[in-house]
Specification:
The complex is a heterodimer of chains A (89) and B (181).
Chain A lengths: L2 H14 L6 H10 L5 H50 L2
Chain B lengths: L8 H9 L3 H23 L5 H15 L9 H26 L4 H4 L11 H11 L3 H11 L4 H8 L3 H23 L1
Helix pairs in contact in B: 1-2, 2-3, 2-4, 2-7, 3-4, 4-7, 4-8, 6-9, 7-9, 8-9
The chains are: A mainly alpha (89), B mainly alpha (181).
C-alpha cells in the first residue's frame, strides 16, 4: 500500500465529516425551490432583449430627430440669408 | 422483519431520473462521501465542502433527465463535480483581482485541529502545491476514473492526460515526502 493511500482515505473521511446531518434532505429541498424552468429563463432573456432593443430604437430616433431639426434650422437660416442677399441691390 | 435488498444502482438512477424523491435521496447519500472527498482534494478548504457538494448534487438532480446512458452516471457526476470546483476556484481568483484586500482572508490556512493527522496534513499540503487542474486530475484518478474519462472531463487528449497525470503524481509524491520528513 502506498503511503498516500491512507492519507487519501483520511482526506475523504475528513471531508465527509464537514457535511452536516440531513445533507441529502437539504439538497433535495434546495433543488426543488427556485428551480428556473427553461421557459422561464427564455422569457427573461426575451424580455431583456426586447427592453434593450426598444431603448436602442428610442435613442436612435431621438438622435435622428435632433439631427434633422438641426439641419432644417441650418437650411432655414441659409434660405433666409440667401433671400436677404438677393433683395439687396 | 426481513430487510429489503439494496436497489441496484442503475435502477436507482432510473427512478431518480423519473423524479422519485426517495431514489434521489438514496443517490445523494450513496455518493456524498466520495463527492465531499473529491471536492476537498481540489479546493483544499473544509469550509466550502458542504456548499460545493450541495451545488454539485443540485446540478445532478436537475441534469439527471438529460443523462441517456445510465452506465455513464459516475463519470458524468464526477465531471460535474470537477467543473463545479474549477469554476468556483476561477470565481475566487477573479474576486481576488477585484477585491485584492480579500486575498489575505482567502489564503488563511485551515485552523489548527481542522486537519487531524500528519498523513492528511502532508497530503493536503502536497495537493496545495499543485495547480487546481492537476489536483482535479489526481482526484479523478483516485476515484478510479479511466484516462479516457479524465480526458473528456478535462477537455484534452488521452495522451495529454497521461503525461499530466504522471507529472502530477511525481510532484505530489515529492511534496508529500518533503512535508512528511
Amino acid at each position: 500500500m502506498k503511503p498516500e493511500t491512507e492519507a487519501w482515505r483520511q482526506l475523504e473521511e475528513h471531508a465527509a465529516a464537514q457535511l452536516r446531518p440531513g445533507f441529502a434532505g437539504r439538497v433535495l429541498q434546495a433543488a426543488r425551490t427556485a428551480q428556473p424552468t427553461f421557459l422561464a429563463s427564455l422569457t427573461v432573456s426575451a424580455a431583456t432583449a426586447a427592453v434593450v432593443l426598444l431603448a436602442v430604437v428610442v435613442a436612435h430616433q431621438r438622435a435622428t430627430r435632433a439631427a434633422t431639426d438641426r439641419n432644417l434650422a441650418d437650411w432655414r437660416q441659409l434660405g433666409h440669408e440667401a433671400r436677404l442677399s438677393s433683395q439687396t441691390p | 422483519m426481513e430487510k429489503s435488498p439494496p436497489v441496484p444502482l442503475a435502477e436507482l438512477i432510473r427512478e431518480a431520473q423519473q423524479g422519485d424523491a426517495r431514489a434521489q435521496h438514496a443517490l445523494i447519500v450513496s455518493y456524498q462521501r466520495r463527492i465531499a472527498g473529491f471536492i476537498y482534494a481540489i479546493t483544499g478548504r473544509s469550509d466550502s465542502v458542504e456548499d460545493l457538494a450541495q451545488l454539485v448534487f443540485i446540478k445532478m438532480i436537475r441534469g439527471l433527465g438529460g443523462l441517456h446512458d445510465v452506465a455513464q452516471f459516475e463519470p458524468w457526476l464526477f465531471r460535474l463535480a470537477r467543473n463545479t470546483c474549477i469554476d468556483e476556484l476561477r470565481k475566487l481568483k477573479l474576486r481576488r483581482i477585484f477585491l485584492p484586500f480579500a486575498e489575505e482572508h482567502a489564503e488563511v490556512p485551515e485552523p489548527p485541529g481542522a486537519v487531524d493527522s500528519e498523513e492528511l496534513d502532508a497530503l493536503r499540503h502536497a495537493l496545495q502545491q499543485l495547480p487546481a487542474k492537476d489536483r482535479a486530475l489526481l482526484a479523478l484518478a483516485q476515484e478510479g476514473r479511466s484516462q479516457v474519462e479524465m480526458a473528456e472531463a478535462a477537455g484534452v487528449s488521452v495522451m495529454a492526460v497521461k503525461a499530466r497525470l504522471h507529472r502530477a503524481r511525481e510532484k505530489l509524491r515529492h511534496h508529500y515526502r518533503t512535508h512528511e520528513t
